Amino acid sequence: MSALPPPLIDRATLTLADASATDAFGRALAHWLALNPAHLAQHGFTLWLSGDLGAGKTALVRALLRALGVTGSVKSPTFTLLEPYVVSSLNFYHFDFYRFSEAAEFDFAGFRELFGPGAICAIEWPERVAGRLPTPDLVVTLKVEDEGRLAQCQAASEAGARCLQQAVSTIQEPAAGDG
Ligand SMILES: Nc1ncnc2c1ncn2[C@@H]1O[C@H](COP(=O)(O)OP(=O)(O)O)[C@@H](O)[C@H]1O
Ligand SMILES: [Mg+2]
Questions:
Q1: For residue 51, which of 55, 106, 117, 173 is within the disulfide window of CB 3.0 to 4.6 Å?
Q2: Which of 152, 158, 179, 136 shows the shortest CA–CA distance to 55?
Q3: What Cα–Cα distance (Å) separates residue 36 from each residue in 30, 33, 45, 138, 143?
């Protein structure tokens, strides 16, 4: 009799002891995205990043983009609101809505039409546009804890759960040569 696969997890809390752990988490999230281009072409993928200024939201997106092959500069979209990238044949939109004073600015800017098939969207300060964003696949909330960070992750779709599961197992796997 074959064992059942483990049930899909939909939440996880990770301790990121230092900036390199945040980078490793970003790379781990990129893993599932890189392996599932057909899903992304059909459905896209949306990641919400919550947490105070300096919590590591931009750092996490930067690591994710690097792992997806972006080699140029990865700037914070704090002032531009949006930094777009192309990874493989997919659009990657990095938003930061910190400077939005009212959610209606989201409509005026025409951002809604950027979401959907073929688009990976990573959003800092999604709270600023509450009610206007399409539902996310995965929500990561970063909190400062001692010298490091805590990443509270909640999947909101099956794709989000698969991405999270893959990320958690990637992080927990000892690197080759360890032990
Ligand atoms: N796990 C961590 N532990 C300690 N420092 C971290 C960690 N992850 C990121 N950092 C640092 O915290 C800062 C986060 O900045 P940034 O990513 O711009 O924050 P945010 O986009 O949330 O405002 C960077 O200086 C980064 O090196
Ligand atoms: Mg930021």
A1: 55
A2: 152
A3: 10, 5, 10, 15, 29
For the stretch 66-78, pLDDT in tens is 999 999 999 999 9
Return the closest-CA partner of residue 90 out of 134, 120, 121. Answer: 120
CA of 179 relative to ligand 2 center, distance in Å: 36
Q: Which residues surround ligand 2, an ion (CB under 5 A)?
A: 57-58, 76, 124
Residue-level pLDDT at 4: 78
Element housing 63 (H / E): helix 57-67
Q: Tell me, in angstroms, the distance from the centre of ligand 2 to residue 112's CA.
A: 20
For 91, residues 6+ apart whose C-beta sits below 8 A from its C-beta are: 84, 85, 114, 118, 119, 120
Q: What is the pLDDT of residues 53-66, one digit of tens each?
A: 999 999 999 999 99
Largest CA distance in the chain: 58
Check pLDDT > 80 for residue 123. yes
Span 72-111, pLDDT tens digits: 999 999 999 999 999 998 999 999 999 998 888 899 999 9
The ligand with the least distance to the CA atom of 81 is 2
